[in-house]
């Protein structure tokens, strides 16, 4: 009887791994130990488009799959794992606010959330920093087939100042899920510079 009860409570606590669905007695994360060990969290600074970007991990399995599901399949339970990844990254105490990479209204309606905002919320709680969104983003059209310069000009045009408010921060950290070319981070940084932000760096969960 006691054994049955113990077994019942144990089974209740066991959760399948988010990625491979395996049950694992040692599950301490939302992932099983095997998948968690494959996750290579290795925080480092990279420079793209002359912006210093702190990245937590390379964009490879299993993180690439998690980010895709998080972004396109409403898999918001991955927020737990991103939280654990963020806990392993030391963000310098230089910043006054966090600026999540904005997404356009139409994309927000389609997706229902801004994935960068959710990551910014994790860091905001962790470092007790406000989230600041002084820039909005217009339509995000495909950049396929454009030259590098055309792409950069196209991306730059997507960012607009949001209606002005009294808040002003000078040292800010841009937050996004993945950095590839760094074009959107550069465009956002340039807009933030026009608002008087003289120190702008970025943090991304992964770098492709
Ligand atoms: Zn697994």
Automatic annotation (TrEMBL):
CDD domains referenced in this protein's UniProt entry, alphabetically: PRTases_typeI
Superkingdom as given in the UniProt entry: Bacteria
Annotated family: Belongs to the ComF/GntX family.
The protein, known as: Uncharacterized protein
Organism the protein comes from: Acinetobacter nectaris CIP 110549
């Amino acid at each position: 009887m006691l054994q049955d009860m113990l077994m019942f409570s144990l089974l209740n606590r066991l959760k399948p791994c988010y990625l491979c669905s395996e049950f694992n007695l040692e599950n301490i994360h939302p992932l099983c130990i095997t998948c968690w060990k494959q996750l290579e969290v290795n925080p480092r600074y990279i420079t793209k488009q002359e912006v210093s970007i702190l990245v937590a991990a390379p964009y490879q399995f299993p993180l690439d799959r998690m980010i895709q599901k998080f972004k396109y399949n409403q898999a918001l339970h991955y927020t737990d794992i991103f939280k654990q990844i963020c806990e392993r990254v030391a963000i310098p105490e230089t910043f006054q606010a966090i600026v999540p990479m904005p997404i356009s209204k139409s994309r927000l309606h389609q997706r229902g959330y801004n994935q960068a905002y959710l990551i910014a919320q994790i860091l905001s709680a962790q470092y007790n920093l406000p989230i600041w969104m002084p820039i909005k983003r217009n339509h995000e059209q495909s950049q396929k087939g454009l030259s590098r310069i055309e792409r950069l000009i196209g991306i730059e045009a997507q960012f607009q100042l949001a209606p002005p408010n009294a808040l002003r921060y000078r040292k800010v950290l841009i937050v996004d899920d993945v950095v590839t070319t760094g074009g959107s981070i550069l465009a956002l940084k340039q807009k933030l510079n026009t608002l008087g932000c003289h120190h702008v760096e970025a943090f991304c969960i992964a770098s492709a």
